[in-house]
Amino acid sequence: MTYRTSEIRKSMPLLPIGTVIQLTDLTARQIRYYEEQGLICPHRTEGNQRMFSLNDVDLLLEIKDLLEQGLNIAGIKKVFEMKKEAKLERKLDKELSEEKIRSILREEMKIAQSRSQKPSLRYADVTRYYQ
């Protein structure tokens, strides 16, 4: 199973609030409050029932841990914001790195073509890294 498939499965809304209450030892009121504060955003069914993913449960457990460590809701929001920014930066760094690699490979291909030589890497070998 690839990382992408695993992440998709973890984000599928499958659990009703009653199950989440049992898994997290939080009350329905606490869960609704965290939703009101924008800390979680469970999926809603056509009947407006909240359905939670495994990622939502992990997030609720993280909120619970941070509260037990003494953070308030504003502090938790700040922690989540910082994590989101760090994740975005890592994604941008990765994209920039991949773009740099592609640029180098394009230049190598141009040089090889101008010399009527084969490039040192085959196209098939390179493209498998970008699928």
UniProtKB/TrEMBL annotation:
Residue ranges annotated for the HTH merR-type domain, each copy included: 14-82
Keyword Ligase: no
UniProt keywords, alphabetically: DNA-binding, Repressor, Transcription, Transcription regulation
InterPro entries in the cross-refs: DNA-bd_dom_put_sf, MerR-type_HTH_dom, MerR_fam
UniProt-listed PANTHER family: HTH-TYPE TRANSCRIPTIONAL REGULATOR TNRA (PTHR30204:SF65), REDOX-CYCLING DRUG-SENSING TRANSCRIPTIONAL ACTIVATOR SOXR (PTHR30204)
Name of the protein in question: MerR family transcriptional regulator
Cytoplasm keyword on record: no
Molecular-function GO terms, alphabetical: DNA binding; DNA-binding transcription factor activity
Gene3D superfamilies assigned: 1.10.1660.10
